[in-house]
Amino acid sequence: MLKKNIEEALNKQLNAELYSAYLYLAMAAYCETIPMKGFAKWLRVQSEEEKAHGMKFFDYIIEAGGTVKLARIEAPKTEWKSVGDVFEQVYEHEKKVTGLINGIMDLAVKEKDYATQNFLGWFVKEQVEEEANASEILAQIRMIKDVVGHMFWLDHELGKRG
Ligand code: FEO
To answer: How many domains does the chain have?
Structure first.
């Protein structure tokens, strides 16, 4: 049985993951309109991944005997300055999510909730990958941002994400 404060933190993270899905979908919509279809494809796939992250919290809360409480999802913004601006924010957002996961882990350690610590271990590892992916794309954009041909090459590469 989940302690109430753990259940609350897990439900909050479920909402944060669904917000991430929403945010990346909004970014995908922006990239579609520039148009940078490859960036948009990468962000669409990322949005689906975030929904899957949210569902991992959904399933765990139920399996651990807690109650899923779905809350309102904040509306993301709709405009960015460029794909560079988008990926600056993807990277910042992923660092923020890492902080949120670490915060729940701290709580689970404090409460001696070993099952939740074990569940969160997957996310600790995943966040290393999430930050690395965002930071790598951002570094590539920064390197080539003034060379239009190279930017189209990157757009093409990111569009291969399945
Ligand atoms: Fe669910 Fe991108 O972290």
So the answer is: 1
